[in-house]
Amino acid sequence: AVPQREQWTGQVGFILSALGSAVGLGNIWRFPGVAYESGGGAFLIPYVVALITAGIPILFLDYAIGHRFRGSVPLALKRLGGKLGEGLGWFQVAICVFISIYYTAVLAWSSSYFVFSFDLRWGDDTAGFFTGDYLQTAASPFTLDFVPAVMIPLAIAWIVTLGILAAGVVKGIQRANIIFIPLLIVGFLILVVYALTLPGAMDGLNAFFTPDFAALADPNVWIAAYGQIFFSLSVAFGIMITYSSYRRRRSNMTGAGLVVAFGNSSFELLAGIGVFATLGFFAFQQGVGIAELEGLTGVGLSFMTFPAIVSQMPGGAWFGALFFGSLTLAGLTSLISILEVVIASLRDKFGWTRRNAVLGFGGILAVISLVLFGTTSGLTALDTIDAWSNQLGIVASAVGMTIVVMWVRRKGPELARHLSAVSTFKVGILWQIFTSVLAPLVLGYMLIAKIVDFLQNGYEGYDTWYLWAAGWGSLLIMLVAAFVLPQLRWRHDPEKFEVWP
Ligand code: PHE
Ligand code: NA
């Protein structure tokens, strides 16, 4: 007999879990710096345009596919569009496999730094401490000496995540999000309020919000906005397809979607305020302007700049604990969602039990992750795989999905009806235009521009051979997955799974 598909217990469980996926490292370490560098307050214009014309429409598309065709990504897309759809599904699964391997590493670092906040172990040279004492990044990306200080938290991160996934949708994923997301919101709010009381905080906010309207004439600013929205909402990764396949039959799809989308953007804005208030304090301490500071995004912001600030701040220990604790919770709840895409797909295709999929395949990913990131090779690999998966992989997947669903299989009207059936917010022709015309045009342009950029300029000055191996190589593996896996036999006849009528 085909087992019943698992289900969230209700709307709140779904919304908190979807929010848990959306609110991640991107909100905390990516948005503030990207906004600052792309026009400050003026960036909010392309950001909102991107949210409304592509972010929310494609979020709805994910929801509609997952709910109507009620399956993991390859299953739902196979039902929607046959082998072509299934291939696209496995492409998304492969992206999730790559991302999970390095996302866990960042989670492990964050939890280490949570502990370090209490003894300020990083000293004065925080950048040197991070790459040297802590990561022990080797000069060559291909030496594999184990680094226990990273290996141990990384192993713990995998055990916790796989444990949550093994417990199932309700007892594992939903329960974790119901606990962690409120905790994250409260903890982060305290951090932001405290940051606002620091001397220099207002200068930071001025730097962040002062609009540079000239930036709006730069196409790269618009690309940055679409890129941020895309990554931030976790669309076109298969995550929202998977999570909405666990919703009850009559669910308010678009209402929940709007809560998640605006909740995620609010958290992002809050992070911008918190991070720039803190940077304002740092600039004030050093007697320099914000513009002279370096390391305002990503790994640099979190593991080099922030530790230096924490060391200088009154009450730094608990400020650091709140910051790294927030990163850890935001990362954990996102990682859970990335891996669930993979687990659900393997179960549907090969008929594995949840436990076997989690312990078997999850175990293999954990070992790969430990070898790549628990060793001296860590940082370079992370950086490269991140750039190729996020800046090319997801965008390609989104373009492919909109074209296959809206043009090749022409499912626009059917999905619009499905979304509107019992939802508070109705979608119609405008949604179809955004998803079928505007999004593929903008995203297709972004994709081509990025491919040309990587081919012409490389990335971060890494050796060309290395980019071919790690960057283009991982993209090639995603494509191979997309072509090969649909050829394998379904363990269960996909038509026989229970589908919502
Ligand atoms: N949306 C998350 C963020 O903003 C990132 C994420 C990426 C989550 C991939 C899940 C999958 O950080
Ligand atoms: Na996000």
Automatic annotation (TrEMBL):
Keyword entries, A-Z: Membrane, Transmembrane, Transmembrane helix, Transport
Compartments (UniProt record): Membrane
CDD domains according to UniProt: SLC6sbd_u1
GO cellular component, one term: membrane
SUPFAM superfamilies recorded: SNF-like
Membrane spanning residue stretches: 12-31, 43-66, 87-109, 150-170, 177-201, 221-243, 255-284, 317-346, 358-382, 388-408, 429-452, 464-485
Superkingdom field: Bacteria
Bilayer disposition of the protein: Multi-pass membrane protein
PANTHER family per UniProt: TRANSPORTER
Official protein name in the record: Sodium-dependent transporter
Organism of this sequence: Leucobacter tardus
High-level lineage: Bacteria, Bacillati, Actinomycetota, Actinomycetes, Micrococcales
